[in-house]
Amino acid sequence: xxxxxxxxxxxxxxxxxxxxxxxxxxxxxxxxxxxxxxxxxxxxxxxxxxxxxxxxxxxxxxxxxxxxxxxxxxxxxxxxxxxxxxxxxxxxxxxxxxxxxxxxxxxxxxxxxxxxxxxxxxxxxxxxxxxxxxxxxxxxxxxxxxxxxxxxxxxxxxxxxxxxxxxxxxxxxxxxxxxxxxxxxxxxxxxxxxxxxxxxxxxxxxxxxxxxxxxxxxxxxxxxxxxxxxxxxxxxxxxxxxxxxxxxxxxxxxxxxxxxxxxxxxxxxxxxxxxxxxxxxxxxxxxxxxxxxxxxxxxxxxxxxxxxxxxxxx
Length: 314
What we know:
Layout: H1 15-48, H2 65-78, H3 86-94, H4 99-110, H5 119-130, H6 135-143, H7 153-167, H8 171-180, H9 184-190, H10 199-231, E1 243-246, E2 249-252, H11 267-276, H12 300-310
């Protein structure tokens, strides 16, 4: 059997053969370009996901359920590749449950409940179980009693707006209640400003007034401190001589003296110094109190009294 003849050399291709070869190569190039673009896009999307911190574990608190769910949605929106499926999103929530919330989730997970395959249905069930069923009524009640108190207006406004979103009250009622809860000094300062027509404008004015009041109080406190320090007398212990009493006679020590005696000599000590011929001021020998270098000369009346005492010993 004769072998199959080899294909004709390229120089014998017809025009149709060349068209077919070029068409096949063009299709291959197009497919390669598509795969390359898909790989680059997928890699770029994976790299572009930011590192978003996960929320704190949820323990079933009614007050925390709203913030927890919002934080979960924020994480998912920032990392769509990591949490692209409903199962991945439910697993994310389940891994952040503890306490009574984990006790609610465990039977669903162990029984492979169909609820775990639908993220939105799972979130709705979580809210139905742990959220406040009377949220609107509760918010309306708190709006009527909330006050600024000792906190800044900005903090008061944040809590007020959260309650307002649940209560669903209109702009006029909201403005009235917000102004009623402000401190008196902020209300007084608001009287000097144009009357706003929107709640957000009123909040901005109140925050500015509160900041001005705070700055003014800081200035007053600083002024009072400077005034107090400028009028307080300084200690004179280092510059004024310290007196020593000798039986009712005051003898002042020298300004640079390192020793200061503040009290009257006991009778026994005074007699001992007289008997031993010691100075009645410093207790040293070799001189009398009138010649003591540690004291300033006493007044004449005091000199006579001290000299009379010394005459007993000399």
